[in-house]
């Protein structure tokens, strides 16, 4: 007996459930895949936005840099285009202040120089009628320029300026009164400059030139009191003492004290006490670096 195949009949509700399950499964797969596809689809747009942002930032930076450079150039141009007279007056003011400071330390009783030494403002310098004051300003600018060259490392040019000043001042004859303040200051500056370069012979020659031109002449005069010349001789005496020439140093310092009695306390210094007692003074620091000390005796190098 044949059995008829058993046919299962699904109800409409069952088929609808299966279809809904398939749709849900497909939706889940689609939901799992769609975020990546969506991100890939939006990637070109994001790149375009990033490029536009970078482009805008780049040109903004360029514009800001150009504006800042233009402002700096205009500012520098305006500073460089200051009136020549203003820059000249500023240079003179700095020169006079520098030279006046040195002159105060080495000045002698000289009315015209003391009046100008007390000036420190540009307004009192720019209108100068007196010939002595004009010479003072000229010397101030020369000395300040020499100092400027030394700071720039141009030592030989600065030395030439100092020597030219000394030669010009030495050629002026003024036998009526002691008026060697300017010459003394220039001599001290040149001697200090030569000591720094280590040239002992040149340093001694600077002191000797002043000694022969000024000190010996003033020594022959009675009751001569010149502080500026005495200070140069004091520096000369200390220079020879540091180089081991104690007898020569003692001789020079006595000549300096004759010109300015206020230097007499210097004789109480240990090196001069040893020299006066005949003891050898051993300096802790010597300028001698390349040359041997010459034989003592007299005032020649």
UniProtKB/TrEMBL annotation:
InterPro entries: TPR-like_helical_dom_sf (IPR011990). The lineage of its organism: Eukaryota, Sar, Stramenopiles, Ochrophyta, Bacillariophyta. Residues 1-45 are annotated as: Disordered. The chain crosses the membrane at residues 56-77. The keyword Membrane applies. The keyword Membrane applies. Gene3D superfamilies: Tetratricopeptide repeat domain (1.25.40.10). Keywords: Membrane, Transmembrane, Transmembrane helix. This is Uncharacterized protein. Residues 11-20 have a biased composition (Low complexity). It comes from the Eukaryota. It comes from Thalassiosira pseudonana.
């Amino acid at each position: 007996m044949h059995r008829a195949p058993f046919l299962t009949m699904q109800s409409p509700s069952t088929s609808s459930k299966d279809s809904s399950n398939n749709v849900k499964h497909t939706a889940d797969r689609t939901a799992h895949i769609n975020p990546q596809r969506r991100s890939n689809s939006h990637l070109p747009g994001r790149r375009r936005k990033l490029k536009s942002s970078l482009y805008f930032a780049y040109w903004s930076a360029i514009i800001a840099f150009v504006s800042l450079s233009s402002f700096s150039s205009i500012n520098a141009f305006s500073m460089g285009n200051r009136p020549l007279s203003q820059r000249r007056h500023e240079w003179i003011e700095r020169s006079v202040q520098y030279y006046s400071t040195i002159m105060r330390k080495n000045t002698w009783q000289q009315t015209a120089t003391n009046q100008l030494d007390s000036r420190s403002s540009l307004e009192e310098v720019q209108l100068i009628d007196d010939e002595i004051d004009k010479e003072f300003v000229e010397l101030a600018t020369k000395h300040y320029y020499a100092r400027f060259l030394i700071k720039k490392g141009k030592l030989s040019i600065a030395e030439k300026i100092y020597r030219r000043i000394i030669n010009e001042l030495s050629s002026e004859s003024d036998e009526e009164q002691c008026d060697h303040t300017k010459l003394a200051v220039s001599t001290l500056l040149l001697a200090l400059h030569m000591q720094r370069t280590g040239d002992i012979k040149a340093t001694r020659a600077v002191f000797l030139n002043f000694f022969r031109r000024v000190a010996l002449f003033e020594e022959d005069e009675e009751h001569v009191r010149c502080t500026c010349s005495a200070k140069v001789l004091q520096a000369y005496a200390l220079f020879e003492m540091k180089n081991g020439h104690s007898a020569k140093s003692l001789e020079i310092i006595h000549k300096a004290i004759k010109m300015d009695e206020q230097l007499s306390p210097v004789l109480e210094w240990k090196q001069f006490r040893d020299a006066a007692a005949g003891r050898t003074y051993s300096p802790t620091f010597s300028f001698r670096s390349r040359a041997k000390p010459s034989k003592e005796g007299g005032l020649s190098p």
